[in-house]
Amino acid sequence: MTQTNIILLGPPGAGKGTQAKRLVDERQMVQLSTGDMLREARTSGTEMGRRVAAVMDAGHLVTDDIVIGLIEERLTTGKAGGGYIFDGFPRTLKQADALGDLLQRLGQKLDAVIEIRVDDEVLKDRIVGRYTCGNCGAVYHDKYRPTKVPGVCDTCGSTNMKRRADDTEEALRTRMLAYYRDTSPLIGYYYALRQLTTIDGLAPMDTVAEAVAKVLDKR
Ligand code: AP5
């Protein structure tokens, strides 16, 4: 199986998770979402989970060492399938350098960085309307992607729907600040490395998916 490793880059609510899940289904790629990993750590009640909970709820970034450690563990022990989708990682230049080193050590490379660009005005609407299936992780939205039967997951039939503690207007303001301060410099960094493609994240989900597919098929 051909392996393609990509980063999905974009602010909170850009649609990274939504697109990553489609690539998992359609191309057997492996989604590595540091946000999901940290949320798992919280619910499993580990010491690290307890430490990061308040940081995440307020919308701040968790320390580089913790997230780099999580990614390293997955890359060295997990199966790559059709390749990795880095979703929400890297988020700082230190994390970007660590990822480059890790991939090199494992004899792999980064094939593309896809920036999903959206206007800030749509993000609040997307974030406060989001809910996910607590069983399979499918992502929904009150307006843009409601479940077919209210409260029942289209994918697995579970009725365990959840809303994230950091999906509030207040936490979103802090998350946006962290994005512009720490993560947006990565756009210039990957552009300079000639790895960046920017796509329109304001388009409907299917159109965004087509744009992502185009980037992957060019590889
Ligand atoms: P994380 O879980 O990574 O959250 P995020 O980056 O803020 O991104 P989101 O998951 O909110 O948005 P998304 O782009 O995936 O959008 P989605 O597809 O769901 O991180 C959470 C926290 O963990 C951080 O704040 C930090 O504390 C910590 N953390 C994680 N990684 C870290 C790291 N590397 N370093 C340090 N700390 C880290 O879509 C949103 C909604 O919009 C959905 O309801 C969806 O249905 C809808 N939607 C999607 N696409 C469209 C479309 N095209 N049109 C209309 N609606 C759409």
List keywords for this structure.
alpha/beta, binds BIS(adenosine)-5'-pentaphosphate, three-stranded antiparallel sheet, 9 helices, 219 residues
Structure description:
By secondary structure, this protein is α/β, with parallel strands linked by helices. It contains nine helices and eight strands. It has helices at residues 16-27, 34-43, 47-58, 64-77, 93-105, 120-128, 169-183, 185-192, 205-217; strands at residues 6-9, 30-33, 84-87, 112-117, 130-133, 139-141, 161-162, 196-200. Strands 2-3-1-4-8 form a five-stranded parallel β-sheet. A hairpin with a 5-residue loop joins strand 5 (130-133) and strand 6 (139-141). The mean pLDDT is 94. BIS(adenosine)-5'-pentaphosphate binds at residues 10, 12-18, 33-35, 38, 55-56, 59-62, 67, 88-89, 91, 95, 126, 129-130, 139-141, 144-145, 166, 175, 201, 204-205, 208.
- Total beta strand runs: 8
Strand order of the largest sheet: 2-3-1-4-8
Radius of gyration: 17 Å
Which stretches are poorly predicted, pLDDT < 50 over at least 5 residues?
Answer: none
| Largest sheet data | 5 strands, parallel
Order of helices and strands: EHEHHHEHEHEEEHHEH
Nearest-integer average pLDDT: 94
Terminal CA distance: 14 Å
Give the helix proportion (percent range): 40-55%
